[in-house]
Amino acid sequence: MLQQQLQAMLALQDDINTLVNDNWREQNFAWYRAIWVESAELLDHYGWKWWKKQLPDMEQVKLELVDIWHFGLSLELQQGAPEVVAENMRQQLAALDPVSGDFKEDLEAFTLNTLSSKQFDLVGFAQLMIDCDMSFEDLYRRYVGKNVLNRFRQDHGYKDGSYKKLWQGREDNEHLAEIVQSLDSTAESFSTELYGALKTRYPG
Question: The organism sits in which domain of life (predicted)?
Fold first, then answer.
């Protein structure tokens, strides 16, 4: 199941990257820099200021982790064939000892590894998931949902500004969350069913 889900997410990431730029692999985009910036945003949502009262906004933390995952998958895809990459990722995740740590310190270690290697620190990322009690199933559901919505937006005029973000008085993200809950995320057709459900609701 894990191998299948990793391959599915790598395929979806390749598709969305290709939609934005046909030759994205040759462009050598600074994915690591995007991860670094997203990590700073993530820390703001978690809270780090000692001079004011702050409570972690764990929903936003998890959303930021999903955004980082997009960039991490893009880096992983530059390492070789998707099937080989998925197997390497599966082995690294399987070897991880699921012990919760200090989220802020683990985030700093993850960011440092990212900046020094300019690669994706998969083990460090998995540790952050453990720290905030985020399961791989949750990551998968959230990632596929966000990826499919991004593709749907691109297909319906996001670039030229004709895309409608409000549907029947609600944002597309709200419709997405509702649809995801109604579908079987373990099905191989999860992403295509999700896209079809968005299309059915879209007023354009």
Answer: Bacteria
Largest CA distance in the chain: 49
User: b/e for 64-85, b at 16 or more Cβ within 10 A?
Assistant: bbbbbbbbbbbbbbeeeebeeb
Last residue of a domain, one of 97, 114, 134: 134
Q: Which residue has the tokens 């590894």?
A: 113
Residues 101 and 128 reside in one and the same domain: yes
What is the distance between the alpha carbons of residues 45 and 53, in angstroms, rounded to a whole number? 13
* Residue-range definition of the domain harbouring residue 154: 139-201
pLDDT digits (tens, 9 = 90+) for 83-110: 899 999 999 998 888 888 999 999 999 9
- Written as one letter, the residue type at 175 is H
The structure's pTM equals 0.88
For position 107, what pLDDT does the model report?
Answer: 97
Alpha-carbon dihedral sign for residues 160, 163, 165, 169:
positive
